[in-house]
Amino acid sequence: MLTLTGVRKTFNKGTVNEKPALLGIDLHLGKGDFVTVIGGNGAGKSTMLNMIAGVYPLDSGKVELDGHDISRLSEHARARYLGRVFQDPMRGTAGDMQIDENLALARRRGQRRGLAWGITREEREEYRESLATLGLGLETRLSDKVGLLSGGQRQALTLLMATLKEPQLLLLDEHTAALDPKTAAKVLELTQSIVTEHGLTTLMVTHNMHDAIRLGNRLIMMNEGRIIYDVRGDEKARLHRADLMAKFEEVSGGELASDRMLLG
Questions:
Q1: Which residue spans within 128-242 are E strands per DSSP?
Q2: CA distance 230 to 227
Q3: Average pLDDT value over all residues in the chain
Q4: pLDDT tens-digit map of 142-165
Q5: 142 within 8 A of 123, measured Cβ to Cβ
């Protein structure tokens, strides 16, 4: 479903602030793969997701989605194929619009828009049923402004919006990092449920080693712009945090210095 070939990116090239971010990333995801991505600060995790989403132009390499080269497509052109949830709960929703209006925008992603009546009765009932699956009581609050919701409720809504129209690829960029532990656990539970139910191909960036091991069928570790470890299946199921730390030190040649990963 997704293939990255030789993807490279350097920020501020040719200046004193030059920062190599990705140093030739090669990655292939099959349909239905749920891949967790872990690594220290500046490892290139979020940059990789941004390159897939088209936020930055490639320096070199290729991005293919379902066999089609999307390397030169703009960010908005790629949006019709991708679902994305950001670390900041405020980024995925429009706070001044109602819950049902946000869902309608998500439903129409990639489609032409006309002057027909905005939300039909049938759509509103569909949204009510979808919201009920979140278990947060939002199905009774369709006309509430999203800005009135808590961070966890907004992130759960963003997750629903990202998957309402099943994307070819779901990108989750530390989407629970800004939430308290109880709310984060709820959002991860919803993530697992939605991804499994729809068989979505998913890339999930996280700093939490426990979550990286527990979720998905595959784990990749990044360091200094490279993928240094790729594990899946039964081998992944047998992993522990100590194994990940040892593997990092073995492959990178240094100790893990990320407080977020160690404390996550």
A1: 169-173, 202-205, 218-223, 226-232
A2: 7
A3: 90
A4: 999 999 999 999 999 999 999 988
A5: no
Characterise 149 by phi-psi region: left (phi > 0), alpha (psi -120 to 50), beta (else). beta
Question: In sequence order, what are the residues at sequence separation of 6 or more whose Cβ sits closer than 8 angstroms to the Cβ of residue 21?
Answer: 9, 10, 11, 44, 47, 225
Please name the residue that has the structure tokens 């989407």: 175
What token pair was written down for 221?
A: 């570790």
E strands in the chain: 2-11, 19-29, 34-39, 60-65, 68-69, 82-85, 169-173, 202-205, 218-223, 226-232
What are the C-alpha distances in Å from 194 to residues 50, 161, 165, 166, 228?
A: 23, 11, 12, 10, 29
Tell me if 175 sits within 8 A of 155, measured CB to CB: yes
What does DSSP assign to residue 51? H
Q: How far apart are CA 236 and CA 229, in angstroms?
A: 11
Beta-carbon contacts of 28 under 8 Å, excluding residues fewer than 6 positions away, are: 2, 3, 4
